[in-house]
Amino acid sequence: MARARPAGLRPTRGLTRDVRPPREFDDFYRSEFPAVVGLAYALSGNRAGAEDLAQEAFLAAHSNWGRIGEYDKPEAWVRRVVANLSVSLFRRRIVEAKALARLALRREPSLSELEPEDTAFWAAVRSLPRRQAQVVALHYLEDLPVAQVGEILGLAEGTVKAHLHAARARLATRLDVEEDER
Amino acid sequence: MMLEERARRAASGIHRSVELMPSRAVADAPGTYEHFVRFLERRRRNERITATVVAMILVAAAFGAALGLLRGTLERRPADTVITPQEVGDLELEWSVSSGDPNAMYSPIVIGDQVLVTRKLGEPTGQGEMSGRQGELSAYPVDCRDPCAPSWSATTERPILRMAVQDDVAYVAERATGEPGGLLYAFDVHCGSDGAMCDPLWTGRIGAGVKWNVLPLVMGGKVIVASADGVFAFEVGCGTGGDRCEPVWVAHPGGASAKPGSAVMASMTSGGTVYIASPEVIAAYPVDCEGECSPLWSRPAPQPAQWLALWDDTVIVGSMVTGRQGTGEANHVWALPADCREERSCDVLWSIETEGLTPVTVAGDVLYVIDQVHDLVAYEQPCDESGCRVRWRARKPLTQQIAAEPALVVDGVVYISSWNGYVLAYPVDCERDCEPIWQTSEAGWGYTYVAVGAGKVFAGSDGIYAFGLPAGDEPESSSGWPGESLPIVPLVVAMLAATWFLVRLRRRSRLA
Question: CA-CA distance, B94 to B470, in Å (whole number)?
Fold first, then answer.
């Protein structure tokens, strides 16, 4: 079955099959990697594994760059991929296994540890239902408006609002803080 | 603290952690584009290795599956099942049907998934056990279960005993006495179901005096029956709607010199020749004869002959001398040349003296002789004037007589039966004094016939008795689900490997 192209994405470019990706992908990777690895970190909670998740997302983009590169916003696509990868239980297990292997080889994670309070916040986010966690991470981490979060996740604006509302209520309870008036 | 503020602070923590990644400042360190390219190359190399390993597993599994199928095909016979010498000792009575009449003389033969049985029907009304009796041919499923009933039956006006089957047509000959003689019947072995009564495809008159061990012979498109009135050959397809057929040729082995009532005692076909034995002569006729048929050769019988077999180029004749006790004359197994034409010698090649009756069977390179004193003797070449080398003798385990029937040799097992409900089995590769590897006394009451097929042993006496292997010990069957012989483990491994590989290939496109 044909997959619907994310809203607002317009094809413009082609893809070569060289091992070294074309220059455009190079630029894309360099500009988007920090945000993507941050999203992976927030949603997986795994310092060592977040980079692997980001690499996987970019690998998927590279493999389909002929199509992805023609979108208006390929960065939205790669965020959706990493958001899905990061909340996948199966993927988490693999990432944790790789992280353990890395620790065994005495390789330090590239990402530094978070403050305990921040760690607790993201742990509470990860305890939310999958969609709510993705919505919260995208909304707060990159300060994206509800419409743009919906565009990335392929959800209607109203759905994003509902998820965000439910997530806030649960987070407020779990973190014992007051929910903002919105 | 408000939730919003807490969230902003947590997001800043993530940003700070990413900003501090060492890769940001070091070339080819984690997080750099060069690092990603190396990651990409490594991933592609791993995928090539994985594809190679999966391909090797698939090839190995396919090879294993093909090997398993080939082995299964080679191990199984195409149209039957096998009871090996190792399994025969496990045979147990599975089902039976009994008439309660020890003179009924049920005689079975296995055809596909049916066991066809002839028997005498009714009670004798005059002198002789045949008078007033009728015959019945019935077909039972080989896996008949209580209440076991025939799929179809057919009756004949006079008794019938034993039959020949070829191309799904069963031929039975009536054992009539006096005029107008009996009939040869041809029945379609699939003529009915649910207990239907069948009519014959055709019949042919064959005279009177068909002896008890003479059964129809089918060869070269002819069905041939010998009686006291001569030898009668019919076309196998001479009728379909109950027609009365005329013989295409007839022969009178005794000729003008034949004594009155000098019946043909045995017959056999091989290589386009039909061999006939009567008390006076041994004669050979071409199967494709016409009209009044002259023999290819004939010679006086060395003794009244009762059984015939062919062993390479030798006709084996088993004799039955009546009144032996009074004359002191012993029975013999005689060996004659199979072809005495054109003045070739028809002299006896060798003979073996026996102490009882002499039913003979040849299987492989072995001649089996039922000697009612020794029970069963297996002879092998070389043979000379003094007889043949004894390969093994079966020890007599019973006090009762062994039936005067040629031994039945199937799948490395020699089966014999008794006069009263016993069946015994010996391995063909026995040595010297041979003990039975299986015997049963559960084969009913009366003179006992034995047949083997469809993974079972059938004994006929006052009824039909089916012996099979216990559940879980059944011989391999070629008629069941073909998947039972498939090597499941390698196929499952191959399917899992292929599925995993396909899932892996498609996973990335599904992520978004």
Answer: 9
Judge: A140–B1 Cβ closer than 8 Å, yes or no: no
Q: pTM (2 decimals)?
A: 0.59
Å from A157 to nearest chain B CA?
19
Question: For chain B, first and last CA: distance in Å?
Answer: 36
Asked if B27 is an interface residue toward chain A (Cβ–Cβ < 8 A), one would say no
3-state secondary structure of B207: strand
The closest CB to that of B18, out of A37, A64, A143, belongs to A37
Chain A residue with Cα closest to B41: A19
Give me B76's structure tokens.
């199984």
Cα–Cα nearest to B175, from B125, B114, B130, B144:
B130
Which member of A19, A26, A118 has the closest CB to residue B33? Answer: A26
Residues B140, B150 contacting (CB under 8 angstroms): yes
Give residue-wise pLDDT tens across range A71-91. 888 999 999 999 998 887 677
Residue of chain A with shortest Cα separation from B19: A34
- CB-nearest to A29 from B8, B36, B43 is B36
ipTM of the complex: 0.82
A85 touches chain B (CB under 8 A): yes
Using CA atoms, how far residue B249 sits from A15, B277, B314, B372, B437, in Å, is: 89, 18, 26, 37, 46
- The answer to whether B412 and B85 are in contact (CB under 8 A) is yes
Spans of all domains in chain A: 14-105, 116-176
With contact defined as beta carbons under 8 Å apart, do A33 and A41 qualify?
Answer: no
Q: Does A18 touch chain B (CB under 8 A)?
A: no
What sign for the dihedral angle of Cα B350, B356, B361, B365? negative
Has residue B341 got a pLDDT over 60?
A: yes
- The domain A116-176: what is its CATH number? 1.10.10.10
